[in-house]
TrEMBL record:
<comment type="pathway">
    <text>Carbohydrate biosynthesis; gluconeogenesis.</text>
</comment>
<protein>
    <recommendedName>
        <fullName>Triosephosphate isomerase</fullName>
        <ecNumber>5.3.1.1</ecNumber>
    </recommendedName>
</protein>
<comment type="function">
    <text>Involved in the gluconeogenesis. Catalyzes stereospecifically the conversion of dihydroxyacetone phosphate (DHAP) to D-glyceraldehyde-3-phosphate (G3P).</text>
</comment>
<dbReference type="GO" id="GO:0004807">
    <property type="term" value="F:triose-phosphate isomerase activity"/>
</dbReference>
<feature type="active site" description="Proton acceptor">
    <location>
        <position position="167"/>
    </location>
</feature>
<dbReference type="InterPro" id="IPR000652">
    <property type="entry name" value="Triosephosphate_isomerase"/>
</dbReference>
<dbReference type="Pfam" id="PF00121">
    <property type="entry name" value="TIM"/>
</dbReference>
<keyword id="KW-0597">Phosphoprotein</keyword>
<dbReference type="InterPro" id="IPR013785">
    <property type="entry name" value="Aldolase_TIM"/>
</dbReference>
<dbReference type="InterPro" id="IPR020861">
    <property type="entry name" value="Triosephosphate_isomerase_AS"/>
</dbReference>
<comment type="pathway">
    <text>Carbohydrate degradation; glycolysis; D-glyceraldehyde 3-phosphate from glycerone phosphate: step 1/1.</text>
</comment>
<feature type="active site" description="Electrophile">
    <location>
        <position position="95"/>
    </location>
</feature>
<keyword id="KW-0312">Gluconeogenesis</keyword>
<dbReference type="InterPro" id="IPR035990">
    <property type="entry name" value="TIM_sf"/>
</dbReference>
<keyword id="KW-0963">Cytoplasm</keyword>
<feature type="modified residue" description="Phosphoserine">
    <location>
        <position position="213"/>
    </location>
</feature>
<comment type="similarity">
    <text>Belongs to the triosephosphate isomerase family.</text>
</comment>
């Protein structure tokens, strides 16, 4: 039985004060980590404060990106060493906004995934198709390719700890959610690809989240699907009450 993981991705939102208020509000109302994993992936300037406020609570803190090198002449970048030192435990890698706007490649995503494991961070690896790819029946091929390239070179132990977030790009921030069946179909395909690349144990262990306009109103149906083990949530993770409802839903699955 895989434990659900509900992760909020705040993207480039909130002030420092709002971030701290959020953490103070939710930290005592979250279910225990043994029941469901809850994570907030916040902008870099808020990470230190969020780790401090949520110490000894079930809420884990993640970053939304990082560089794969430990240090060096990479102006504006943040390294895995810096994140680890802060007490961050998760990192989103290869979000479609990073792939599209900042031109991140599958190769860079793969390097970042390796760097995450080298530094004890759990990677949440994002994959997903565009509307064009879906309409051209290229969804499975595209998503499978992204998964295989992202995990290239990981050993079985590492691969089984990866969290994959399946996020159809056409459903992100649009209010248009993939139906629970559509989402599950792709997640099942991802699990099969993991079985081919590794084995049944790895395929069974990997948590696969769905992301794309997840909200309290649709989360139960999505999480009840056989191959969906959580959600990566943008907009609906920004309000404390809404985030708490999403995590609560994860507890019941
Ligand atoms: O990382 C989160 C996704 O991009 C989904 O964002 P959304 O829930 O606002 O559609």
């Amino acid at each position: 039985m895989r434990k659900q993981v509900i992760a909020g991705n705040w993207k480039m939102n909130k002030t420092h004060t709002e971030a701290e208020d959020f953490a103070q509000t939710v930290k005592n109302d979250l279910p225990a980590a043994e029941q469901v994993e809850s994570v907030i992936c916040a902008p870099f300037p808020f990470l230190q404060k969020l780790v401090e406020v949520t110490k000894d609570t079930p809420l884990e803190i993640g970053a939304q990106n990082m560089h794969y090198e430990e240090k060096g002449a990479f102006t504006g970048e943040v390294s895995p060493v810096m994140l680890k030192e802060l007490g961050v435990t998760y990192v989103v890698i290869g979000h479609s906004e990073r792939r599209e706007i900042f031109k991140e490649t599958d190769e860079e995503v793969n390097k970042k995934v390796h760097a995450a494991f080298e530094h004890g961070l759990t990677p949440i690896v994002c994959v997903g198709e565009t509307l064009e790819q879906r309409e051209a029946n290229k969804t499975m091929e595209h998503v499978e390719g992204q998964v295989k390239e992202a995990l290239e070179g990981l050993n079985q132990q590492q691969a089984s700890k990866v969290i994959i977030a399946y996020e159809p790009i056409w459903a992100i921030g649009t209010g248009r959610t993939a139906s629970a069946e559509q989402a599950n179909e792709v997640c099942t395909h991802i699990r099969k690809a993991l079985q081919e690349k590794y084995n049944g144990d790895v395929a069974e262990a990997v948590r696969i989240q769905y992301g794309g306009s997840v909200k309290p109103a649709n989360v139960d149906e999505l999480l009840s699907q056989s191959d969906i083990d959580g959600a990566l949530v943008g907009g609906a993770s920004l309000e404390a009450a809404s985030f708490l409802k999403l995590v609560e839903a994860g507890k019941h699955e």
